[in-house]
């Protein structure tokens, strides 16, 4: 296992060393930087082309502004009279779309500059289980994955994350998590969501992955007990592996204050180069550049229903998913120019 | 020959309504209404027998009237006309034991329906979001009505084991709401300002009292074709309301309070005797509870006519206007919209449509 981790890393480093020579040093790197951003500005006016010629003078702009204001007031009206719907998990779709996603979007677009690949691997219809690596001390990777699916999926699917029980114990956090569509990571909830045809996101590494030391970055931890595979099998939905690069470096966890964690009832208490030494300022994540890659879906509908009871098959499938995520992680790491760009 | 139905808890609003309704069913010959106190409402043609189900006399009533169906509604959270928690608990637990003992000795009993509550599932942050009839509770209710209900269900299971010839139906009701229902939750919702737990917005489910009567009737009769009415079933309206939504729809402002303070104030108020706000109620209003009604729908063949939102709307209509009536707030927003964006094309028109 350890060998399997070391070899690709060496591979990664050698290729990384090779690349600058090929790319003609710094100038290329600088030129390459706006590369992924360049297609975006043309895409934007392109999308708004029909609207742009209509807005030469102030009246049209005013109409647009008024429409937005009226929309905002209609939203306010629904909210203060309580006339909105939540599902049985407490998911408030309207609040998520209009408010929570808008709050996360600057972090997603401007701060971490997330690049999304393979979002079309998430099916347009029906349930799917997205399995991702977990890292970064704070579970921001899950939230960024949610924004990625929400903003980029062609069918406008909503990701329903499965969260640790700690989330639902904490005040305020549990309320927001439920409203954003998250629910407790247990087989019952996952299966209920998948059977309802939702896209469910799970991070089977849990706190082991989230709170692993910086030195072990991008080394996948044990995938729980593989419960997610049997849930997907029982619901007959495909498993979409997802690899997230960039979250590991946002809070480089160099130490863990175990005693303090135990006193506070937390799974770990991170010590980073800045936290808690700089106080609240130290809690600011580093502006790393993120890539989220959704991989080829692994179909599960070919298995018989009783296959979910076969531990050997579960272990094999769990390993397959894990390998695929790990492999994609290495591939993305090789392609990455720098942690911050 | 028709059925003879015995209904306990007839002096309560729900019991009274059920007694009046079931006697109109053609299969029913006679209805024996039982309670420890005289009912204030009429019971129609039913025979009222004043007997305390905590006493063994209830066995005589069963034998005397040749009762074949028992509907046990006297499992409740609040005392009728005074009496503290002790007497409520005794009626719930000892009363059920006596009643079941009497039933066990009666050879004619063919059907038993017991009113229970979804609070047997408890409310904990580590529970799955939706409870099914088979979900075991992570934390068993530690006291109050919920614990009574757990114990009652335990005795009913024991009875069902000893008398397999009797069809036993346990109905777990979500919070029952209706214009005339009195429960700790309706008492809470009647407060002018609702104290809530800071940082928690519980999911709540309600069932309308009309649906309660309907489902009790279904359970008391022979099962309809292709359905089965013995077993344990959750009864709740479709959909979910958050407490914040309830408060807004009622037009009552909320005051978020820290959880330790809520517990402390609740204990203080209970000691003084102002309210009977049990810790399980606080847990419900912290973590919420949602049950699945799929089993009830598919096996029992019952779908409530009122959704959770409709049941709540009916309840809200029966209560006075709150301090912040939703109509007034909506009107204020509409006036604002009319002022700031008078000629706004599409968005504003939807606003006016909604008004």
Automatic annotation (TrEMBL), chain A:
GO terms for MF: acyltransferase activity
Alphabetical list of InterPro entries matching this protein: Plipid/glycerol_acylTrfase
Keywords tagged on the record: Acyltransferase, Transferase
Pfam families: Acyltransferase
Residues covered by the Phospholipid/glycerol acyltransferase domain: 128-247
Positions of region (Disordered): 1-63
Name by which UniProt lists this protein: Lysophospholipid acyltransferase family protein
Native species: Streptomyces bikiniensis
From TrEMBL, chain B:
Domain of life: Bacteria
Domain NAD-dependent epimerase/dehydratase: 5-236
Coiled coil: none
Pfam families: Epimerase (PF01370)
InterPro entries xref list: Epimerase_deHydtase (IPR001509), Lipid_A_modif_metabolic_enz (IPR050177), NAD(P)-bd_dom_sf (IPR036291)
Protein name as annotated: NAD-dependent epimerase/dehydratase family protein
